[in-house]
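Lay summary

Proteins are chains of building blocks that fold into shapes. Our project writes down both the chain and a compact code for its shape. Here are two examples, one after the other.
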Amino acid sequence: MKGNIVVGQSGGPTAVINSSVAGVYAAAKKLGINKVYGMVHGIEGFLKGDLCDLDEQIGDETGIELLKRTPSAFLGSCRFKMPKIEGHEDTYEKVFEIMEKYDIECLFYCGGNDSMDTVKMLSDYAAAHNKPQRFMGVPKTIDNDLPITDHCPGYGSAAKYIATSIKEIMRDNESFGFDRQTVVVVEIMGRNAGWLTAAAALAKGSDCTGVDAIYLPERTFDVDKFMDKVKETAKKKASVVIAVSEGVKIADGRYVCELANENVAVDAFGHKQMSGTAAYLCSLVAKETGLKTRAVEFSTLQRAATHLASLTDINEAFQVGFDAVLAAEDGKTGMMITLDRNGDDPYQCGTSAYDIHAIANVERTVPDEWINETGDGLNDGYEKYARPLIMGELTPIFVNGLPRHLVRK
């Protein structure tokens, strides 16, 4: 590429999304691209002309390594939805004006479903108006719900954190006997796809019996069956630990969290902001059984725990960023880099560039054959899929007893 490039981040951050920015930057430097700009707060900031020079922000190999160990979105994120092209051509023209001003040949966008929709719309506009600029999608989402790709960067680290934390919660809850019997309900992110909650199944091993039930949004949630499960389990065990997705719905289509609060906020993409599922279920258990309960929400922690990130995840996040630049160098546009699993024993994974139109606005859920017959657990098929994704560690760089992060100047 003769021109410069720009990279941005969008949507909920992950523990490894910055590794993808590092991959874009490293590939650009290897190819001799003059300038690598960063969007400050994604496409929303870009439309305001808010850019930074990544040479000044990252600088060298030390900066790259520190960026890999930094959680959240180093460049700043956004939840800005690009409007439909018709009637909003001025918004799209603004993107191209800024690209021309900074001699930007290709825009790289790291994100999930909504971010890939942005890549699709911008590349479609460029094609329809004979504009030379190119657009590439770099996948990220802890939700793991992008289609085509075997899995999404960010998921492995979130799954590692969830499984680890579940084990630790179980150890804590097992400390007391029946005289202090406690039911713990752990609420895990996941709107319509239960990939994150499924990760609770990975806690089971030679030193851990695993959780007592896992409820995913792929199956209709039955409150009565949930209560029966809790009561039956509590007869046998002093410690009861259950994992539930924040996105579980009852038969009439309402989210369980809406049973406690009907006035759920909605974001720019029309997504309901969910929270309180575990708290609501714990209140039911306490009311019907008199048992002590504890609601645990991992919330932001499951996407911010870079200190417990999967090395496999970090390396793959870096690779999709790196390979996106190589694909753009070959003239590709309107595509997203996918992770393609080539083997399980040993685990092997490569990458490809795939048409963004087959990816944007398509949501992939947990396969039905991986969910058990009673709908409250996972089978070995899921573990075979997910276990390789959580392998390996990258030790943080500690300063004064705490991990050091790279902070945007």
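And here is the second example, written the same way.
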Amino acid sequence: MLVGYSFGGPYTRVFTDLYPGEVSGLVLIDPSQEETFDWLKVHRPDVNRPSPRDEAEQNEFACTYVSLDQARAAALPKCPLTLITAMRPFGEMDPRLRPQWLSAHKRWSARIPGARHIVTERSDHGIIWEEPDLVVNTIRDMVNRVAQR
């Protein structure tokens, strides 16, 4: 079973595509979604850009769109999946971002038969610190779902 938080979401999706027989379930916690990054490039090109002075940050950022393209090309998971979307805005971000984030999560998860989608208004992207019980209980639920198969 794999759990992916934030940019770990695309990574777990790519792994699941490459090794489908190795993954029995997925829990995606407020995962990055390629559709949202596409939206940000158009509507907020100032967001998700590395500092021109930080070479390490530039090197890490250079992999972002390669990884998102791999996630976009990955087959949809054929195992149980639960996706958690945190909806409380964070930072000074554009107020259009959270609704777009939710919409992208809904569209993507709707393509997966039996997927569960949990939406919380109590957390922002720091959901793993703000609602650890929700995260842990969702993971436990997936463990139980997988065990019953």
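What can we say about the second shape? DSSP finds seven helices and four strands in the chain.
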